[in-house]
Amino acid sequence: MKHLYVVTHPQSKHHIDGCVGGWYDSGLTDLGLSQAGNIAQRLRELLPEGAPVELYSSDLRRAYQTAEAIAHQIRAPIQTTVDLREKSYGDAEGKPQAWLDERFLYPPEIGNRLDHREGIPGAESRREFATRIYRAMDRIMAGPCPYQIIVTHGFALTFVVAAWIIMPLDAAGHIAVQSTSGGITHLFEDDSFSNRGIVSLNDTSHL
């Protein structure tokens, strides 16, 4: 039996500044820090008292600050990895969203969407982004701990879920999973059939 709770970090400074996130290392706002506390409290309620828990996080500041609040509640160390970062937007990171919008090249409706380049120097393709999220999930899922928490980013949630349901990476060109800042997604694998389910997706009731 395995329970995986996936958290998308709450409100960050780049959100209210209207800037492109990606690998731009913005921190949480005051509201975001308060929301991180709410997330931590909700996870404490969901986890059985005394159960072993592993906590994984993107190393970007907004995710790590969220993980810190959770670690304080559940008394677990934070294991960081760059593989859980948001998609890199290269030269657009930290710039006004309008700068990216003016230059962005949308992927084709059909065809090879995974390797599409969006017209932004240094940006990751969807395949490059998905590959490292899948790699992170492989490492996390290989562990025997029955309760695991992942703190990551909004777009990254799509590929966390895709990896969870064992969607072949080459089939992940169209999938999009709804995400909201501060949402909690609960994934579950039973120990009889090893079926993997989505118990709840992007729950924000704690906010």
What does this structure look like?
The chain is an alpha/beta fold and 207 residues long. It has a single domain (2-203), classed as Phosphoglycerate mutase-like (Rossmann fold, 3-Layer(aba) Sandwich). Helices cover 34% and strands 18% of the residues. The protein contains 6 helices and 6 strands. Strands 3-2-4-1-5-6 form a 6-stranded mixed β-sheet, sandwiched between helices. Helix 2 (30-46) crosses helix 3 (61-74) and helix 5 packs across helix 6. It is globular and about 50 Å long. The model has no long low-confidence stretch (mean pLDDT 97).
Summarize this structure as a short list of keywords or feature phrases:
Rossmann fold; 207 residues; alpha/beta; 6-stranded mixed beta sheet; 34% helix
What is this entry, summarized?
The protein is of the alpha/beta class and 207 residues long.
Secondary structure tally: strands: 6
What structural class do the secondary elements suggest? alpha/beta
Number of discrete domains? 1
Instruction: Give the CATH H-level superfamily.
Output: Phosphoglycerate mutase-like
Low-pLDDT parts are none
Instruction: State the end-to-end CA separation.
Output: 28 Å
Count of helical stretches = 6
CATH topology name: Rossmann fold
Mass-distribution shape: globular
| Cα gyration radius (Å) | 17 Å
CATH architecture: 3-Layer(aba) Sandwich
> How can the largest sheet be summarized?
6 strands, mixed
- Report the β-strand fraction as a percent range: 15-25%
